[in-house]
Design a protein that fits this description.
The protein is an alpha/beta fold and about 160 residues long. It has a single domain (about 5-160), classed as Maf protein (Alpha-Beta Complex). Helices cover about 45% and strands about 20% of the residues. It has six helices and five strands; from the N terminus they run αβαβαααβββα. The protein has a five-stranded mixed beta sheet, with helices on both faces. Strand 1 (about 20-25), helix 2 (about 30-40) and strand 2 (about 45-50) form a beta-alpha-beta unit. Helix 1 packs parallel to helix 6. The longest helix is centred in the last third of the chain and has 21 residues, at about 140-160. The chain is globular and about 40 Å long. The mean pLDDT is about 95.
Length: about 160
């Protein structure tokens, strides 16, 4: 099993131990997290749904991200990641939601928001959502996206084991 597959398996086992479902809200990964999760046999008992919200309109319509947030902070921001995670939790039957929004490249970066910048959101029922900022090395789009999947799963595992 690959490293991502092993992390997905650990995350799903943590969900099963807590008797909760999971949801994802993905932008820069385009569904890679939910794909890695659903590659695991039996995952249907721990996975509720995945939202692929690549555009701002999708973030607004599917997750309830505020247009004001997107205008003020942009899609790749702490506020957007928090709202994505909270929206995925609220619009699903999950007890935990993982959200990612970032710049995977090769273009789209700026001095303020360079390629490799990813904001992670995590929401757990009964707790305020949290966000983390990571700046990955610009070793190509696939590298950044895979690192994003790895980090999101690690955050989920940490949240469920505490």
């Amino acid at each position: 099993m690959s490293e991502l597959g092993e992390l997905a398996d650990r995350f799903l086992k943590a969900c099963a131990a807590r008797k909760i479902l999971s949801a994802t809200a993905e932008s820069c990964t385009g569904g890679m997290i939910i794909s890695v999760l659903t590659d695991i046999p039996g995952s249907s008992s721990m996975v509720d749904r995945g939202f692929v919200t690549y555009s701002n309109d999708a973030k607004i319509e599917m997750l309830g991200v505020s247009p004001v947030t997107l205008d003020a902070h942009g899609a790749v921001s702490r506020d957007t990641a928090l709202e994505m995670a909270a929206g995925a939790l609220a619009r699903s039957h999950a007890g935990i939601a993982l959200a990612v929004t970032g710049i995977a490249g090769p273009d789209g970066g700026s001095a303020e928001k360079p390629v490799g910048l990813v904001w992670f959101g995590l929401a757990v029922t009964g707790q305020p959502p949290i966000a983390e900022r990571h700046q990955f090395e610009n070793k190509g789009r696939d590298f950044i996206r895979r690192q994003t999947v790895r980090t999101a799963l690690e955050m989920g595992i940490a949240a469920l084991s505490g």
